[in-house]
Specification:
Blueprint lengths: L1 H20 L2 E8 L4 H21 L1 E7 L2 H5 L9 E3 L3 H8 L9 E3 L5 H5 L5 E3 L4 H12 L8 E3 L10 H12 L5 H20 L4 H10 L23 E4 L5 E5 L18
């Protein structure tokens, strides 16, 4: 027993030194405004990633850059690209040959064209326009006289630890978390979780893991994964005219589950 205690004390002493000696520095590159909700969500994700990283020997930073600057960065130095831009800019960055095997995250555009193009390196976090329309149609099939709109996130969502996420975000940023903020947070969260699981920062390896092995808890219920269209499967919140959450799509009894919302497959 005495030897076990001595071993425990030894491990307690050397563990921080071991972690510090093996820190993985991870940089994500971001193109978009460095104010507003997407950026606030990215920063919230970064804060949480670094809290976790203290115990796992990982240090995360987000480097704001321009497309011209991005083109000059060797691809082996880029783990992932985060874009809070319009659809045309996403297409432009995704089409750069040097980043053909690098995760390119769409954090802001709902354009169906980005999903229909089925670009192999693009990962779409926001709801597509078609996902929103499908969710509303499910509601109106049984509630035709009650207008609603569809959102990816809501400040009053409380299930699945959503209330804790909302509280953390509001405390740190003095604003309510919305779809844009959730998208920024979610991208950093899934990336840092993936680095923790794979112990790899290579863009090619990261893209492969995200597309094939990701099982993401985004505080929304139902495990979120990526379709081969690049769209993140996720619950859609239905909001009434008084800004109340009235339902979550897919609605109960609808065939297909999460795949009843939006473009299902490229094939």
């Amino acid at each position: 027993m005495k030897k076990m205690k001595q071993l425990g004390l030894l491990l307690l002493f050397i563990w921080p030194q071991f972690v510090l000696a093996n820190v993985i520095d991870v940089t994500f590159h971001y193109v978009g405004p460095t104010d507003g909700q997407v950026w606030a969500g990215v920063q919230q994700g970064l804060t949480e990633a670094n809290l976790q990283g203290q115990f796992l020997g990982q240090n995360y930073t987000v480097q704001a850059t321009t497309i011209d600057e991005l083109k000059k960065i060797p691809p082996e130095q880029v783990t992932a690209i985060l874009l809070a831009t319009d659809a045309n800019t996403v297409f432009k960055v995704a089409g750069l040959q040097q980043f053909a095997q690098t995760p390119v995250f769409n954090l802001a555009s709902a354009a169906d064209e980005l999903r229909e193009a089925c670009l192999g390196n693009v990962l779409n976090i926001p709801l597509s326009e078609q996902m929103k329309l499908d969710a509303i149609a499910q509601w109106q099939a049984k509630n035709e006289d009650t207008p609603v709109h569809a959102q990816g996130w809501h400040e009053d969502f409380v299930k699945f630890a959503a209330s804790q996420l909302n509280n953390r975000f509001t405390r740190n940023h003095q604003s309510k978390m919305d779809d844009d903020a959730w998208a920024g947070w979610a991208a950093i969260k899934m990336l840092s979780d993936s680095v923790a699981r794979t112990q790899n920062t290579d863009g090619d390896a990261m893209l492969t893991f995200l597309k094939n092995d990701l099982s993401f808890d985004g505080q929304k219920g139902d495990t979120a994964t990526f379709r081969n269209s690049g769209q993140l499967r996720q619950i859609v919140l239905l909001i009434d005219e008084d800004n109340n959450i009235v339902a979550e799509a897919p609605l109960r009894g609808v065939a297909g589950g999460l795949d009843s919302l939006g473009l299902v497959s490229c094939r």
